[in-house]
Amino acid sequence: SVIEHRKLRVLHAYNSIESEITVLFKSVRKTPDKIIVVLSIKQKENKDVGTAGVKADQDKIHPLFHRLNLEGRRHNKLSAADVLQITEHPLQSHESCVEEELVQTFLQKILMMDYRARYISVKETNEQDQQRDADSSEDEGDFFEYVLHNTSLSNTVTSQSERIHPMDVQMAVFHCADGFLKQLMVTKLSQCQYALPLLVPDPFTQQIEFPLWTFRQINKSWKMRNNDNEIISQTQPIYKTQTPVVFFFRFGSVSSSKSQLMNSLINEKHNTFFHRNCPGSSRTRVLMDGGVEISWFCPSGKNTDKFTDCVAFCNLHGDAGDHEKQLQILTEMASVNVVLLPQLDKNDRSAAMMNNLFGNKKPLICLLTEDQSTVMKMKKRKFKIESSSTFRLEDVSKHSDIRVDEEDDDDSRRGRAAAQQIMNSLKKKHLTEIKESFMPHQGKLWHQWSQKNKELHRPRVEEKDIDISRKQSEMKKIREQQHESDISEFVKLFIKEMNTDAEHEKMFFIKWLRILLDEHISTKQTELEKISEELQAATFCVEHIMREIGQIYESCSSVKKNKKDLQIHFSSLPSLAAEMMISGFPLELMDGDAAHVPLIWISAVLDELIQKLGDQRVFVLSVVGTQSSGKSTMLNAMFGLQFAVSAGRCTRGAFMQLVRVSDEMKTQMNFDYILVVDTEGLGALELSGRSTRYHDNELATFVVGIGNLTLINIYGENPSEMQDILQIVAQAFIRMKKVRLNPSCVFVHQNVSDVTAGEKNMEGRRRLQETLDEMTKLAAKEEVCDAGCFSDVIRFDVQNDVKYFAQLWEGSPPMAPPNPNYCENIQELKEYIMSHASQVHSKIEPTGNIDVGLVQYCFCLQ
Questions:
Q1: 656 φ/ψ sector (left φ>0, alpha ψ -120 to 50, else beta)
Q2: For helices 573-582 and 599-613, what crossing angle results, to 10°?
Q3: By percentage, how much of the chain surpasses pLDDT 70?
Q4: Domain ranges in the chain?
Q5: Of 580, 721, 758, 570, whose CA–CA distance to 656 is shortest?
Q6: CA–CA distance, 348 with 360 (Å, rounded to integer)
Q7: Whole-angstrom distance, CA of residue 860 vs CA of residue 862
Q8: Where are the transmembrane segments (predicted)?
Q9: CB 556 within 8 A of CB 483
Q10: pLDDT tens digits, residue range 820-836?
Q11: Residue 7: what are its φ and ψ, rounded to 5°?
């Protein structure tokens, strides 16, 4: 790097990386093969000097878990199912809470991507209020006694020092969560642009864990300039991204906040690393010492970027002298080491460690807190530090004496081995041939059958009975051809693994298969981005495997016999899909490629759900909107789900996922589950052509028909785009009226610049009502229906049934955290949905009626 007066720059030998920290140049010592830079830093503001590294006593750990109601959770781990169910607590907005609810409130906010999860204030209990009042009444009347001898002041300080540190809440949940909840939690922390746990000492055994599994779902995107000065985009799974890493640590107690200094490098407007000056920070920290956190800077390709490539930053909490293993691992892997130092004596143990670092060839930067009594001679020089080492997250697992979570878990290892065995059969085929070779049942034959089925239910006027009979015969022949198709070894292995009784192993198997499929396909897809058809052929994931199983089931049902190479009876296949749904995985409801609902398969899966869960009452929440309008992101934030999200046409067709309602809420809500239905966007560019409008009408009609409540997602404020979607929606509701279905809707207006402007919102509502009425008239003519305004078609209150959402990001991606106002809007909408659902319980269908209802809904598509 180049280091100059008041600036410190770190330039990688191969990739130019830049960073700036305000520093004062103090002294430089050069050696032939390295450079040691010693800098003096000045802290702008400092609260609780030297307290952030207070080492936790073992006797503080058990009381902490007790106060957080996590005593029994060290072995009986919290699961994702525990925190994703609908309870009364998440239906309330919590800026503060009592201590016992800290864990629930933290999880509620972090799952909604609300980065204020770390800043929850704790309410005093009634007992604490009474004690404080009693203390203040005793001190009335004597100023000197109150100020100079008052013990209540010291009691207040003691009380504050005993507040639970926000990072202790996070890490206590982390230690008490199972692998799937940990992964979900860390993924959400990453979305909030927070640092993530990299090395985690067990609070009871001090065994160091590397939670590699928790990073497996995280992708990072950034933009950089190539040698021709062209901006190129990169998106990579973070666990395999090769980056330089800057490692920060300290010896002893220093007055400057290391985490605050790192934040100024990564994102000055956001506290990536929690530090002592953050809201809610306390003097005592129990679970963080010895932990290492990691975060990445992702450039946006602009001249204002501090770094021109993706750079990792690691932060060792506590005195590095007390955590030699962590220090050794990170100093070896780092491209640049940065140490904050107090005044050291030569006899200190830390001084010996510094001598070892001095002997290392790695670039070393020493930061000393400025000593005002020292006279410093200021020099303006430039020095270049070169470091060729880079860092890959997966490589941390190669170090001995640390526990790697996914390797230590038997279910994870077996699930991975099974997924890897299946993946081996894919490697012999070109990416664009995988679907055709391994998934023959969902290819041309299924598309032909879907088209014939549509023609059968939309007969032309001149069509005779003999033509209808001919089509039915053709459809039967197609099913017979499907049935004769061989089942690939890939699908056989998948069915075999899913047919075991080990629930956790099955969940790991599916997760690992998703990870390995993404890894296998993403490396090749970039070559096909310019060729849409080939890119679609190369898209392959777990959803396609389940679609293939669905078509195997439908073909067997049609010819009423089992396939010769199917190791189980075909009637068992719906049970596998039902188990996946119960475990929290989404199931494809509408095939996005064929634009068809496989009714026989879906009905069978729902029947299996009834067998496994009982005839439960289900409230169906669906969403419709334009492409890339944030539908999946909204549902994920609202319910903690993980529908696929990215730019472009990410969701194809429609997917459904079950969300459980807690026992205490069932009586209030009068239903047991919410069935959340996510759909592909309307007006997809990939479908541009004559069929686009017809396809959109079909999709909107299906989505509106299946839902008890439909969220209509509108992005931006472009009047022409609003008109297109509103006419499609109006036409869908008119069709519902014709078949006597009465769903409800809520309009969600996304990316509104000022959601608090009442007058502007009133004008927006008035304009929306006018446009809806106008589009309803046009749609009514097409559908030959008498409707003069939208309220003639559906019960709609423009004041209450229109919600305005702030923009998702607080700043410019990729480094921007989610906007807290967006999270508040999500919370308000969720409360409104639950309130609405509780009022329409008489219309809630039991699961036994949903499969019957699907036939009615599909009738609406004709």
A1: beta
A2: 60
A3: 78
A4: 2-45+88-118+164-407, 124-161
A5: 580
A6: 19
A7: 5
A8: none
A9: yes
A10: 999 999 999 999 999 88
A11: -135, 145
